[in-house]
Design brief:
200 residues, mainly alpha, 51% helix
């Protein structure tokens, strides 16, 4: 059964102009490019690298790093289970975050997100979060939700935070249920009654 369609964003005219400018920024000044895993469900090398940088900025410094947990790849797996149109909108948000033109308006300077300093990255994401453009704020919320879910659902993260993990109801230790089959007693034909016997 195909995932249901749930629109994350409703792109308006103003956001459409920003999309055009953002795409131009990607062409004029490409960002850093890391080597992604061999197989990705939705992301490409560019958006996987952007997502890795976003995760590094959003995930807490006290626990395991986003890179150690491979948050970007875990989010890619989540996107693969989403409706394709919703996943495509998340990819579009990642491209906008990376754009040097968009970054200029969000405090990152005229440079791609992946080539910005950690402080600049934090500023850019904070301005996305509080943006007066509803589509951008919703886009950031969607990306952040995916990153947080991918991070804290990993055993290394919830153990580091003191969470003991999901309760164990014995699924892994309980013996397999043995179904004992009870055979019904054999059916015996009634004994033949002598013809001259008259029932009393």
């Amino acid at each position: 059964m195909a995932p249901s369609r749930r629109r994350l964003l409703q792109w308006g005219l103003g956001t459409g102009v920003l999309l055009t400018a953002g795409t131009l920024g990607l062409v004029l000044q490409p960002g850093e490019l890391l080597d992604p895993p061999d197989h990705l469900d939705v992301l490409d090398a560019q958006t996987w690298t952007v997502l890795a940088a976003v995760a590094e900025t959003l995930c807490p410094p006290s626990g395991p790093s986003a890179d150690a947990i491979d948050v970007a790849t875990r989010v890619d797996q989540q996107l693969g289970r989403m409706h394709p149109a919703d996943a495509a909108e998340v990819v579009l948000v990642l491209k906008l975050i990376e754009s040097s033109v968009v970054g200029l308006f969000f405090g990152g300077g005229l440079r791609p997100f992946t080539k910005s300093t950690p402080e600049q990255r934090a500023t850019v994401l904070a301005r996305w979060q509080t943006s007066s453009v509803p589509d951008l704020a919703k886009g950031f919320k969607a990306v952040r939700g995916l990153v947080v879910t991918a991070y804290y659902s990993h055993p290394a993260a919830y153990i580091a935070s003191g969470y003991p993990g999901p309760p164990n109801f014995g699924q892994g230790t309980a013996p397999a249920i043995q179904v004992r089959q009870h055979r019904p007693p054999p059916i015996t034909a009634p004994a033949d009654r002598p013809e001259d016997e008259v029932p009393g």
